[in-house]
Amino acid sequence: MRVIRATGLAALLSLLVACAAQPPAVPLEPWQIRSEQLAAVGEWQARGRLSLTTPGDSVQGSFEWRQRPDWVEIRFRGPVGLGGLFVYGPPGQLTAIGRDGERTVLGDPEVDLAAVFGFGLPVQSLPYWLLGMADSRYRHAWVFDEFGRPDSLRQRGWQLHYTGWRELGGELLPRRVDLAGEELAIRIVLDRWSPGLDEP
User: Is 1.20.1250.20 the CATH number for 30-194?
Assistant: First the structure.
């Protein structure tokens, strides 16, 4: 009888150790699930307005954005310095065309845009930030509101603030994003967004 009890106790201990070695799966937060679903939308298009403010200048304009996994097109309309700017190409090999038609290959898009056009737009992370997502390639810190939606995001030296959440194209998206960088403040108002691409 003692042998049987000892064997049973050993089996029970083995089971407990096995369970302890396999921690329970942590459930995904609702916003993480939403972000993963939205990130899976390979193609989308958007229209909106933006303003850019530096210590010595401020401009306003509008934009049209067409995004694919392997290609991006961003067309800006507005005053000198922003209007007529067209950025396109594979995400890692962007080219910019200015109002005068001159092409500039953007080896480092944000640095080169600042040098040539005066505004260092964070174009590599904007496709994520615009839709209320963090750029997964970089460390980040979220603050959420009482409804579980992003209120602010800190990433890559930028502080982002989101307001006016509503549904666009079947997705919950921010109406406005305010970005504060070291020497540049950007306000983006998202007027339209839809999955898929219309014919250009």
Answer: no
